[in-house]
Amino acid sequence: MPELPEVETTCRGIRPHLLGQTISAVEVRQPKLRWPIPAELSTATGQTIHAVTRRGKYLLIKTDTGTILIHLGMSGSLRLVDNHQQPEKHDHIDIALSSGKLLRLHDPRRFGAVLWWTEKIETHPLLSKLGPEPLETAFDDDHLWRQSRGRKQAVKAFIMNGHIVVGVGNIYASESLFRAGILPQRQAGRISRQRYQRLSQTIREVLAEAIAQGGTTLQDFSNSDGQPGYFAQELLVYGREGQDCVACSAKIKIKVIGQRASFYCSKCQT
DNA sequence: AAAGACACCTGTCCGC
DNA sequence: TGCGGACAGGTGTCTT
Question: What per-residue confidence (pLDDT) applies to A1?
Answer without folding.
Answer: 64
